[in-house]
Write a structure and sequence with these properties.
Elements: E1 2-6, H1 23-37, E2 41-47, E3 56-60, E4 63-68, H2 85-98, E5 103-107, H3 109-124, E6 131-135, H4 140-147, H5 157-167, E7 170-173, H6 176-184, E8 192-194, E9 217-222, H7 231-243, E10 249-254, H8 268-279, E11 286-290, H9 297-303, E12 306-309, H10 319-325, E13 330-333, H11 338-341, E14 348-351, H12 356-368, H13 370-387, H14 390-414, H15 424-428
Parallel strand pairs: 1-2, 1-5, 2-4, 5-6, 6-7, 7-8, 9-10, 9-12, 10-11, 12-13, 13-14
Antiparallel strand pairs: 3-4
Helix pairs in contact: 1-14, 2-3, 3-5, 7-12, 10-13
Length: 429
């Protein structure tokens, strides 16, 4: 198959942990690579954010990244990209007129808008319509529920996001929890399928270098620092343990928060977390490592006694899979996909969201029982290997593509359609 991935802000070539770069970048890059290894040709279309970036970059054999000009050639926060989607859609349509894909797989709601509008433009010019599938990665309805007034999404997201799900041929959810959220948006359940995120088992495994560590019980937090990731909960849990006389628990925090372009020094979220640690009297137990090379992450995971992942909400979460693959147990909030990937008492411990007391109890339980901790790590490794390899995820995704493509081709032959002229991005402006 000729597969077009659309990922408007999450460039698979970007460094995870940089601004607006995280799990979606890893997902798109890894899925594209795994599909190429299965014999497909994959082109990832993303927005150009640097004038010096080549238009076409080979990411690996069978995968090419194409940078399309849509708006200023600099970083633009993803919540400010909506006005530039018509230009992105036209760039997609122009590319697809000369190299029509069999399947379009868009990622994030704005990529879905651009992909659908590009397909509409193709149809208006008499071109063939490819099958369009979509993965949301995060839903605005969930974000608003948890962040309220702090949600920076454009107001148009509330009505445009459900339209994306309703107009694509199939939505690929990453976990069963997401399916219920999608049906609540009016997306028919028969047009929703599930393929989880994956983990690169050639990078994340139990054998290999182990980073230096302190003598106490070592916790690790990984990911971009924003309030909704709940890193402050781990700091509060350590303070609770300290108040009970448990003083040997340390937390390493890997990642940075958002900062204005050209800003030098700690970002706002790092400063907030440091001030919290100082105010609670545990600053000496909290270590901020900042952004680290991706290649160094596995050794940090192996050095930890447990990885802590306690966001307010999480569509899926790749960090727990990476931890499990390295044989390190996970303490995770029981939200979204984390409740599906982490088996409570089997591969890690699940705790209620935003509950530092429960988190402290989970840490204390693992600290007091090294044998149990080791058993969780071994079981997590086995689960990651058997269920979450990118090869397995790509195979599942490939079957979804084939099924949808067959259905779309049958529908097109039986009920030829013409362009409706209703383009989502233009209607929003």
């Amino acid at each position: 198959m000729n597969i077009a991935m659309v990922s408007e802000h999450a460039n698979p070539l970007a460094t995870p942990g940089s601004v607006d770069a995280g799990g979606q970048n890893v997902h798109v890059a890894a899925l594209s690579r795994a599909l190429a290894e299965r014999g497909h040709r994959v082109t990832v279309f993303t927005r150009r954010d640097n004038p010096d970036t080549p238009t076409r970059v080979e990411m690996c054999p069978g995968v090419e990244v194409v940078h399309l000009t849509a708006g200023p050639m600099r970083h633009v926060p993803k919540d400010e990209l909506l006005p530039h989607l018509p230009a992105l859609a036209e760039g997609l349509a122009a590319a697809w007129r000369f190299d029509p894909p069999d399947v379009v797989h868009s990622h994030f709601w704005m990529s879905g808008i651009a992909a659908l509008d590009a397909v509409e433009s193709l149809a208006a010019r008499g071109g063939s319509r490819p099958a369009v599938l979509h993965t949301f990665h995060a839903l605005g309805s969930v974000k608003r529920r948890h962040q309220g007034a702090a949600d920076t999404s454009p107001a148009e997201r509330e009505h445009l996001e459900p339209l994306v799900g309703q107009r694509v041929d199939t939505v690929i959810a990453t976990c069963p929890d997401e399916v219920s959220e999608l049906t609540a948006l009016g997306i028919p359940s028969e047009r929703i399928d599930v393929a989880p995120c994956g983990v690169d088992l050639s990078v994340f495994h139990a054998t290999g270098p182990v980073a230096e560590r302190g003598p106490g019980f070592q916790l690790l937090s990984l990911g971009r620092l924003v309030p909704r990731k709940g890193v402050d909960l781990a700091i509060r849990a350590i303070a609770l343990l300290r108040s009970r006389g448990v003083t040997d628990v340390e937390l390493r925090i890997v990642g940075t928060g958002d900062a204005p372009e050209g800003w030098i020094g700690p970002d706002a979220e790092t400063l907030r977390l440091r001030e919290l640690a100082e105010s609670l009297g545990v600053a000496e137990q909290i270590h901020f490592l900042g952004r680290v090379d991706r290649a160094d992450v596995p050794s940090l995971i192996r050095a930890a006694d447990a990885v802590v992942c306690t966001p307010w909400y999480e569509p899926f979460g790749i960090v727990p899979l990476e931890s499990m693959a390295c044989g390190t147990p996970v303490i995770a909030a029981n939200v979204g996909g984390l409740g599906d990937s982490v088996v409570d008492g089997g591969t890690g411990l699940l705790v209620p969201p935003q509950d530092p007391e429960a988190l402290a109890g989970a840490v204390e339980r693992l600290r007091a029982d090294p044998v149990f901790c080791s058993a969780l790590g071994a079981a997590g490794q086995a689960r990651a290997q058997s269920r979450y390899s990118w090869e397995r995820v790509a195979s599942r995704t490939e079957r979804i593509y084939e099924r949808v493509l067959q259905r779309v081709r049958q529908d097109r032959s039986q009920h030829p359609t013409s362009a409706s002229g209703a383009r989502l991005a233009e209607a929003a402006l």
